[in-house]
Design goal:
The protein starts with a helix and ends in a 9-residue tail after the last helix. It is of the alpha+beta class. A three-stranded antiparallel sheet has the order 1-2-3. It has one domain (about 5-95). It contains four helices and three strands.
Length: about 100
């Protein structure tokens, strides 16, 4: 298992186990890989303390994410369409086998 993913799991479980640090939604955690090419992010809809080796996270290709952020076409879309376009493109940026929701 990638060290960054191990760090994400450890951090998420530690924070998730302390009720004074976690809101109702469970919070967010993320960790970049040492080479800076990917980021592991706690998946939406998953309580922070439930992140595990095979669930609760997504691995994003940061080059693809930067491309989304720098795409002038995306910036020109009306807000509702922009959000849908970004969500669809972020799904493509995921490089894991977890599917929707991690």
């Amino acid at each position: 298992m990638d060290r960054a993913l191990t760090d994400l799991i450890r951090l998420s479980k530690r924070v998730g186990s302390d009720p004074s640090l976690v809101g109702v939604g469970g919070g967010n955690t993320s960790v970049k890989t040492d080479d800076g090419r990917h980021m592991y992010i706690k998946a939406s809809g998953v309580h922070i303390g439930e992140v595990a080796e095979g669930a609760g996270w997504r691995r994003l290709n940061l080059e693809v994410v930067r491309g989304i952020l720098n795409d002038p076409w995306v910036a020109q879309l009306p807000e509702a369409k922009r959000q849908a376009a970004i969500v669809a493109r972020l799904a493509v940026a995921c490089e894991d086998e977890l599917g929707e929701g991690g």
